[in-house]
DNA sequence: TAGATTGTTAATCGATTAACAATC
DNA sequence: TAGATTGTTAATCGATTAACAATC
């Protein structure tokens, strides 16, 4: 699920969402609207599949089909990144991948700290999709001392006390929280104090963070409830 | 992440999103807008916390603070469910919980089929949040015969061949997919053919489903990429 | 009564859509 | 040239916001 919620503008303290874009407005720096930003990763995913298949050029109609948006939305999104296509021809796949990656600020080997080594944390630590997109889980922390020393993915679980040290030495700016709801806020506070600027939160809690810190929330129950709504609606 | 994407109206075949609301429009049945539906679960969560704390009445300003939306949005959302508050007084917590649950079509003990018993599937099977919200994982299936018979949460893993039978006997209409990208579409096809009408997809693939079936996508890489964008934007 | 708070209206804002001129 | 496809404009649509009358 995608949530969203940026503790940037208006003044409401906490962040909330499920990957969907709540609210309007543009980020301060770039000229990309929030909906556009939320769609770019999907384009990147479809482009990677095309590149693997050896496709070098793609039209907005084709790419739109692969990403579930309309061709008009796709062209508008891409044109906001610059003049990437050629009329009558289409878009070059490789150049498009590069342009989107640059627009998203994806840098090679971005370190990410993961807090929580339970089932969910373990799943996240072993998720290969991060590596393919330039992200690397550089540390896994857990409050349970019994887990310290165990492997998760390619890293070894460390005790929670080493949170600040892990953030400092890796210079990570992004963190993933797969911890129980009860400790989520305090973990978030520590992460932010240590220098983290983006949080992906799986705990069913609305985190309160200072301005300048972005929270995206993934709440599994919320997702299922929205799904249940659509399903119930169809029954009527 | 909340994704969204309903294969209802417009015509673009696949669904895409991450819990965020892409697109506009209202569901066919109720008079609830998509953004409203996506916010209701958050209200329910905040209300549950208030109820646990013994609060019986809450104002839109207070509840808004707990959910990260503006009071105006909250009042508008709630008024679309009916006249639930009293001017000068506020909203009764218990009645609000009931009204939102009813609006979301939450019924007691809604069965959900889970496909995939890896780390992520195990985390989902053990997630207690579902039970608290009237959902129950009634079956866990996995293609790996070695996992059959093992416990996940309170149910026993069954071989993938029993997918159709599991859906039929449980009469489930919702399913969660925690399977590899390569098999996601074929699993989705089988689930839909068996009668599933709502899919929560964790595989990084845009599923193509018939109209009348809702897909919500949770793509962890997408979430992190959006987070990276916000973080990079702040650096400029 | 006076203060508080909802429900709703009107205004603003932003995103999507459709259409098409520009251009390969 | 003729066909195809982008980039962009104008129109439509829907959501948010602010303000306030109704009402407890």
TrEMBL record, chains A, B:
- The answer to whether the entry has keyword Nucleotidyltransferase is no
Tell me the SUPFAM superfamilies matching this sequence: NAD(P)-binding Rossmann-fold domains, Winged helix' DNA-binding domain
Q: What sequence ranges are listed for the domain CoA-binding?
A: 106-206
Indicate where this protein is primarily found. cytoplasm
What ranges are recorded for DNA binding?
42-81
The protein's job, in short, is: Modulates transcription in response to changes in cellular NADH/NAD(+) redox state.
Family of this protein: Belongs to the transcriptional regulatory Rex family.
- Name used for this protein in its record: Redox-sensing transcriptional repressor Rex
Source lineage: Bacteria, Bacillati, Actinomycetota, Actinomycetes, Micrococcales
């Amino acid at each position: 699920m995608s949530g969203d919620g940026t503790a940037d503008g208006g003044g409401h303290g906490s962040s909330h969402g499920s990957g969907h874009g709540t609210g309007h407005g543009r980020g301060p720096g770039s000229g990309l609207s929030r909906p556009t930003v939320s769609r770019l990763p999907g384009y990147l995913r479809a482009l990677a599949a095309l590149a693997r298949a050896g496709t070098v050029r793609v039209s907005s109609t084709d790419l739109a089909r692969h990403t579930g948006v309309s061709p008009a939305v796709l062209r508008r999104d891409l044109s906001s990144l610059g003049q990437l296509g050629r009329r009558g021809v289409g878009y070059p796949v490789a150049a498009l991948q590069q342009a989107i990656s640059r627009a998203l600020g994806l840098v090679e080997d971005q370190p990410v700290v993961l807090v929580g080594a339970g089932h969910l944390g373990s799943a996240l630590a072993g998720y290969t999709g991060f590596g393919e997109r330039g992200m690397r889980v550089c540390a896994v922390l857990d409050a349970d001392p019994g887990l310290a020393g165990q492997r998760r993915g390619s890293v070894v679980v460390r005790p929670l006390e080493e949170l600040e040290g892990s953030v400092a030495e890796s210079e990570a700016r992004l963190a993933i929280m797969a911890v129980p709801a009860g400790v989520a806020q305090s973990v978030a506070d520590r992460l932010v104090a240590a220098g983290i600027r983006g949080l992906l939160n799986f705990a069913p809690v609305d985190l309160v963070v200072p301005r300048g810190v972005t929270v995206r929330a993934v709440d599994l129950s919320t997702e299922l409830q929205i799904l249940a709504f659509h399903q119930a609606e169809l029954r009527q």
